[in-house]
Amino acid sequence: MRHTRKHFKKRGRDDLPMVDMEREVRDVASSNDVRTLVQLFPEEIEFLLMRLPPVTKVEDLDTLSERLSGLGGKEELGFSPLFCPLLIDAACQRGIFPLALSAGGDRYIFAPKLHYHRCLTQLEPPVEGFPMANDAKEGKFQVGLLQVSKKYLSGRNEMTRARSFDVFINRKEDIAPALSLIVSQHGENWMCRALRACFVHMFLNQERYRTKIVVVTVRRHCYGADSREKAKTADERVRDFAEGDHVEEGDLVAAEIGFIAGDIYTSATGAYSLSGSGTLQLAVTGEAMRSVGCKVWDLGMAMAYKSQVLGCVTFPREKWLRLVREHVADTSLAEKIEGRLREKFSEGVAVRTLFSLADK
């Protein structure tokens, strides 16, 4: 098995400059205030106000749907020059996706997105509010439809050191490698540095926020007593592996960042470095979330593959907002689910084991 970068974003013919994600995470961990206020010129603010509803405080999120509807068409974005964990937490609790929008150059503004249609699938059907299914696949996540390659399903074998893969969720040591892989693949995009800082802060301080940040990683299994040292070396390779490099023990091959509000899991972004491991990322994420009690998987904007292999159906905006209000009403749910994730996956679960449980 060999790593690939063929699908990574390029600058001309070259890979994008490497980002020192370990340093980013250390800076966030040592900071008392991770908020970022983006400086905008008066004419830029005027331009934005003509097109997007402003969001300067939590209360503005409560009227975002109404203000977007007042613009006509299918507008979905608000805007704020402020990136703030409290504002992001409040947005997630209201079914509003935390996004960043380029403001020119290397500047980004916070652009909370309220999708005109939201793409959802049930992890524990039936979920009230979902339409009656026309067939057995519609509206339900079924891991078998993803057809994960058999090369990822081998079991562990200490004698032969057979190639095997493990799923880890919400380990603190995984946040930097996961983000490093994501930025290497996608570049500086809507998950910009200011937004990453808020996500990392919320991840490192889960107890302060109702929204629980989730970090999913898939690694090649490490054998032997020196497995932690191998994993550390593997993380150093995340930033600089080359096309065609062998996948060594401990290597990260897929990662996802998302969040839990109530018992709804929302995928935010992800990346992979091995052929077929993008599909694997989706499969393990869905199965892991189902195993700890998430009832709904929110996949954001509608795309063909989401309905074809993830069983997604689309919810219009107001129906989505009603669903969120119902599912976040129990303020203890997300905390319990995140706790189960750490308890079950912090030491790693073999992909084969996770999927075998799904078959029972």
UniProtKB/TrEMBL annotation:
GO biological process: protein catabolic process
GO molecular function, one term: leucyl-tRNA--protein transferase activity
Bilayer-crossing regions: none
Domain of life from the UniProt record: Eukaryota
GO CC, one annotated term: cytoplasm
Name recorded for this polypeptide: Uncharacterized protein
